[in-house]
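User: Can you predict the 3D structure for this chain?
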Amino acid sequence: TSRDEAKESGLKWFPYNKGGAFRKWYGNNERLVNWENDGFELWNFKPAVIRNPTCYFKNGITWAKVSSGKINARIFKKGFVFDSGAIAAFLENGKTLIELQSYLNCVLANEGLKFLTPTLNFTIKEIKQLPYKPITNPTTKQTIEETAQALISLSKSDWDAYERSWDFKRHPLLTQDVQTNLLETSYKKLRQNWQAMTDQMKELEEANNELFINHYGLSGELEKEVPLREISLTCNPHYRYPPNRSNPFDPKKAEKRLREDTVKELISYGVGCVFGRYSLDKDGLILVSQGETMDDYFKQIPQPSFMLDEDNAVPILEENWFADDLYARLEEFLKVAFGAEHLRDNLAFIKKALGKDLQKYLLKDFIKDHVQTYNKHPIYWLFSSPKKYFNLLIYMHRYTSSTLSVVLKYLREFKDKVNAEIESYRNLSVNASDSAEKTRALKTLDKYSAIVRDLEEYENKTIFPLASERMDIDLDEGVAVNYAKFGDALYKIKGVNG
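Assistant: Here is the predicted structure, written as structure tokens:
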């Protein structure tokens, strides 16, 4: 998309470069900016300062202006806007652009920048001061380009393996080359693939260093080796879990953490399949546009092997009060994905990886991890009562003005179920055969009575008034604006609900 095409498209949101964490070659594509009508709102927003708009939407390379380490240049295609936090460079010749990226990511450029900018502030001024010797040898130019293309390809493949990527297809444990009936075996195969990717990336990075060292005649002066912590693949634990002063890198702990995070990401993908965001039967996003319905899902997935949730409301409760609670749906997901006969083994692997069983993770930790993954902009929203006895998850993109009525229905049904149990335990406490049985019954009565009080408070003060409003949301307003409309009804996110 050129700038003129963007202006004429009628679209509102466009990719936005804003620096980000240390990552070379490709990635950190996470943000969008409102550039509707050639950026009309931004031009008229007084605090905004728009510089070099003629360079918007061009092919280029970018890097963070302020870095805690070395410069890390990434390529991006046409269609991006950028700001001062993400310096961008543009050249007319695509091959020369890749050559510049390879140079900036090599040891030679980083050594030069140590002298030019000890503050690690990488502006265009410092980049222009780097000594640059044009490459005229066609064989060298071709080798540099081929090496860079391989590095970009590996980096993109790694970036796209995670939900944050706009080109995410499916969880890597569910890809054809690693998936088996046993999760543990699948993970071992995936880990081997990741190690091979990391090793290949390291070899290519060092080859790129060697090309420039030789071209500048600095053999023996600079070393080509690249430490593992600088191989910027998310699947590389040395990079993903960097050491600090109080926590040095421990390979065993890093491997354990990588397995845990991979299982959490599989659970997140499973939740996406429950809500119809993803499907086991088709790669990529399925239901993501506001107003899409079950019919839209079936147009893409006529005969789903795993059915999405019909009413976009999935309880997460301490006990199995509903047949369609999240734990039950994810058990079904695992059966379809890996085979029903292997469910017990796969649940045991999940428990080993998480350090707790799946139901406890869903109840206590899933929403925390989801909020962190999506940087306080969750797409799955948790309706949660004051004492956390009632928890129900919805998918923001499938929200309608009647969704809160569905939440209210589940809340009231849960309250009725608990009240029925209260009556049962009240009778048991009266007719108990011994004091121990009576004590247990009274203790359960106290617990269930506390649950009902929590549910009644949540219904009367929060959910019923909201459901009566039949409130709409607009996805174009973004997560934070929409989330804040629901106040105390939703899981508390610091700086968002308020």
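Residues 435-469 form the longest helix (35 residues). Strands lie at 13-17, 31-34, 60-64, 74-76, 81-82, 86-89, 314-315, 380-384, 391-395.
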